[in-house]
Request: fold
Amino acid sequence: MNKISPLAFILCLTLAGMQVSAENWIKNADGSPSWIDTDSIRQEQAISSFDMRLEFSDFTVVSTMEFDTSKNTWRTAALVTRDKDGKVLHAEKKENPDDGWNKLIPGTYGKNLYRHYVETPLPPTDAKWKQLYKNNRGAAFSIDTNSLRYKNGYADFWLAVEVPNQEKDLSLIIYRIRMNMAYKKVMTLSATEYNAAGKIRLHAAAEGAKENIPADSPVEKIFDYLKNEIDSGRL
Reply:
């Protein structure tokens, strides 16, 4: 019987469209007491949307948030309030597509949601992973060659780190990376964690600060591979 690697198994579940459940609620990355359903994240032309849940002692509110990336605006398109037994207490939906839009202003709640779940996309569904390094603890480091790009001295790519032994129900982390090839610096743009079942357990934008690439590190192995690809003209 052929064996499938843990990385391939996770990606089959998460990136190829198989869903374990219709919802996947994770804690909001901005630290607020709310939850985001990553399975509800959608992008249709300029409109991005997802469902958000707020929990209180006696009731729960689930809202559909919409963001118009062409106009830099956002709104609550619909919401449903239920009591602790699931009974609907209140429901509303904006029928007019032009109603209720607010400007995305830095430092506001809407802008924070936009930064983590619209401006920072989930890992791609058509990733083609190439393993470049595996350390003595069993952690494997792979890049997506489908979305790998090099322009103006920067390499942009997705980096998957397969975590051995599924530590603390963590089996995979996928980072969005930008690498300065001339100055040998790296920036982490986002991180997405997956549990043992292949479901997202965290997704967040990163600060993107430039950091030196440590010698003899897995990241240096990736840098060396990319440099060779660039020098040879393949990238």
